[in-house]
Amino acid sequence: MKKRRVKLEDIARKLNISIATVSRALDESPRVKPSTREKVFRMAKAMGYMPNQIAKSLSSGKTNLIGVIIPRYDESFFIEVCRGIDHYVSKHNYKILISSSRTSFESEQENLSFFEKGLVDGIILCPSHETETFSHIRSIINKGIPTVLFDNIKEEVSGADHVLIDDNKASFSAVEYFIKKGKKKIVFIGGIKDKKVFQDRYSGYLEAMKKYNIPIDEDLILHCNSLDREEEDLEISKYFKNLKKRPDAVFTVTDNYGMMSMKILTKLNYNIPKDVEVIGFGDLGVGKVFVPSLTCVAQPSFEMGQKSAELLIDQLKDESDEKHKKRVITLETKIVFRESTGD
Amino acid sequence: MKKRRVKLEDIARKLNISIATVSRALDESPRVKPSTREKVFRMAKAMGYMPNQIAKSLSSGKTNLIGVIIPRYDESFFIEVCRGIDHYVSKHNYKILISSSRTSFESEQENLSFFEKGLVDGIILCPSHETETFSHIRSIINKGIPTVLFDNIKEEVSGADHVLIDDNKASFSAVEYFIKKGKKKIVFIGGIKDKKVFQDRYSGYLEAMKKYNIPIDEDLILHCNSLDREEEDLEISKYFKNLKKRPDAVFTVTDNYGMMSMKILTKLNYNIPKDVEVIGFGDLGVGKVFVPSLTCVAQPSFEMGQKSAELLIDQLKDESDEKHKKRVITLETKIVFRESTGD
DNA sequence: CTGTTAGCGCTTTCAA
DNA sequence: TTGAAAGCGCTAACAG
């Protein structure tokens, strides 16, 4: 039952004109007489013509598609970034093709290869945590495919633009906020130590403590090693239960850690924020509905997507043969104050 | 700096064989001598050959891409569905192209038109809440593009398969659970009345009450009209504050309503679950970390994606010209018990 | 303003 | 087992 699609040729034949004229008319080229254009449009509509995007792409050498590779779908940070990208590129007549690398290096390579097959005009990629080498990305760039990296970039890649947030600084400012409020026993709940983001957020904590001459107390530091939520929950619960000292503030490197901390602290009869204040990191919606609502370092995720898109479109537009210099954009974070810090 | 890509012709020339042979060799066709195939593979690798997907698609008539249209990115239900789809189709060598209709009918049409341009081999679509007419979908189907609809289907569309959950039944069973536990004053918090899902969830409530001869008390029913979270929060807070009776159970048509209800009920000095039990609808992750954790009707979102994908792949595989009969799959929901019902 | 023509890179008969 | 050649539907350079 699959009907043959109407093509330019069909319209041309009916109208007794050439395919080229039909093509131009449909493109609203000024090089075709208005009356002809009208005729073509009418006929195209009447015949139910729909251009063949594939043929167009093959012929024009561009697909108007942008490939986006994120480590996972089920993290709202990435979804927000994608929304930001989509928001920007749609204004420039591009669509996005999102792939998940499922935080696997191999899968990231596969996705990249897929895009390398010419389906996309450019690529926006967030390297997975597993990614340690960057030759697969360099290879893409060497083939002349415009590329922008965002968020988790462990190594600079020349030829690609980078969009980042300053994790260190963000973390520093959260801890500084506590210190300025007179907090002394500030717990730091970090993540797996070999992830760069977590290292940076940790160093921000250390630097803030150092700047204000507060000695580091190892007992107040926990680096979570767990991979899933259940485990994390246990790890954090256990930590606070065994903690001999009474902290007056808790800074965690994710919102989830923040909420889990509040959960167990409440059970341990702490009053939040009176006895202990909590700041999380991320601000992806859940912290807002939690009771008490969670103050956190807000990552500009949507904006990050927009900015990445902007840089990519810019590369796409720039027809010059000269290679782009690598541009690095660092986005500002801000703290969103809520109940867990008494706001 | 954009280098010309290596193509079949380049390999053929180097090896002094025809393009056709190279193409076949790379396809692992049995119609090419193993030794030749070896040579071709080696050369292809050496030259860094990457097939051109666009050319392939134009020539073969298939793109191995599946278009997915969801109402919005920022709802984990849809993201889960997409994950389910991706999970299934990737086993069949397909990729998905996700578009959001931003819950706008117009945008849904636009997205569909985009897919109609031949970029995708099939379409999986969740109609937006705004969508009242279905001719745009019928038009796609008439063009012979395999289509599967899921979730919010107000009207049956012949030629497309449907994947649904039984909202009515799911809702019924949640309310029935309360009733069997001896609850009498069961609050129902619904959503905007003209959305089919919400109507169905409402009728499930009514039916359960009727079956067990519990009179309907209008005071215990609220249909939220708000469009954003802040407003919803206010609406629900106000409702409970003004409620003269003390309910012993609350059933809400979304998880969010459930959590907001718990929040205000706790403030009003209800103990959950002792004084009042709460069941939400959705189960998309947040209810689990909330305190108390929220019991809810779990929508099989991932499964819904998988099933939709399965039906689509099935249509794609079926080369017969005969039109598919419309298949309707109804997926089972289940209740996930947590603290808000004392579990 | 319009038509002719040569591709875009690959698949796929058909012939050898 | 291989090759020649005709498309797939559209764009774009060139000619008129």
What descriptive keywords fit this protein?
3 domains, alpha/beta, 6-stranded mixed beta sheet, DNA-binding, 343 residues, homodimer, Rossmann fold, 45% helix
Q: Quickly count the helices of chain A.
A: 13
How many domain units of chain A? 3
Largest interface: A-B, 49 and 48 residues
**What is the spatial order of strands in the main beta sheet of chain A?**
2-1-3-4-5-11
Biggest beta sheet summary of chain A: 6 strands, parallel
Average residue-wise pLDDT of chain A? 92
Shape of chain A: elongated
Number of strands of chain A: 12
Distance between the termini of chain A: 64 Å
What value does the Rg of chain A take, in angstroms? 26 Å
Strand content of chain A: 15-25%
Would you tell me which CATH topology of the largest domain in chain A applies? Answer: Rossmann fold
For the record, the CATH architecture of the largest domain in chain A stands as 3-Layer(aba) Sandwich
Give the assembly state of these chains. Answer: homodimer
Q: How much helical structure, as a percent, in the residues of chain A?
A: 40-55%
